[in-house]
Amino acid sequence: MSEPRKARIATVSLAGCFGCHMALLDIDERLVELMKLVDVDRSPLTDIKHFTRRCDIGIVEGGCCNEENVHVLWDFRRNCDVLIAIGQCAIMGGLPAMRNAIMHSDAPLRECLDEAYITGKYIRNTTHGIPNDPALPLLLDRVYPCGEVVEIDYQIPGCAPSGDIIFNTLSGLLAGRFRGFERDKIRFD
Ligand code: SF4
């Protein structure tokens, strides 16, 4: 009798810090258990840069701060049956979205870049310029949570979520018995 098909998953980090991917590895020895159930396609974990086939689950870390993030997120939505936003950056924009708070300026993005590269107190930029290589992806006017760009099926909250929460969510989804989070398991105090 042939083995049941393993689920295929893909992961990506957009405007995130890779902390959520590190949390994925915090599953520790249960990774072995998980790998019996899944094959990993496009992901920084495999260094596969493009989808080789359709995936059952896509896991997205980070929101969208630039044009490339949006295209990658669209690609994930097109190629994954279920899309999970993992961590506060993917769910709400997180730390990168602090720049969304610059509202008192006529040109908030320009003000943000000026402070980051030129006028900031601790900046030592000998070129006194803002990087503008054409190869750099175009920055968006603000940082967008994934749910404002595509439909997201599940969210795993936390910064970063614990390995336990990630494992329980993924194993529950793969077994078709995920019923949401237990209230006492999602605490930030
Ligand atoms: Fe990093 Fe936290 Fe954002 Fe995850 S949610 S990418 S750990 S800052």
From TrEMBL:
Presence of the UniProt keyword Iron in the record: yes
Signal peptide: none
InterPro entries attached to this UniProt entry: Hydrogenase_assoc-protein (IPR051349), NADH_UbQ_OxRdtase-like_20kDa (IPR006137), NiFe_Hase_small_N_sf (IPR037024)
Required cofactor(s): [3Fe-4S] cluster
Domain NADH:ubiquinone oxidoreductase-like 20kDa subunit: 17-171
Alphabetical UniProt keywords: 3Fe-4S, Cell membrane, Iron, Iron-sulfur, Membrane, Metal-binding, Oxidoreductase
An example Gene Ontology molecular-function term: 3 iron, 4 sulfur cluster binding
Keyword check for Chloroplast: no
Protein name: NADP oxidoreductase
Lineage: Bacteria, Pseudomonadati, Pseudomonadota, Alphaproteobacteria, Hyphomicrobiales
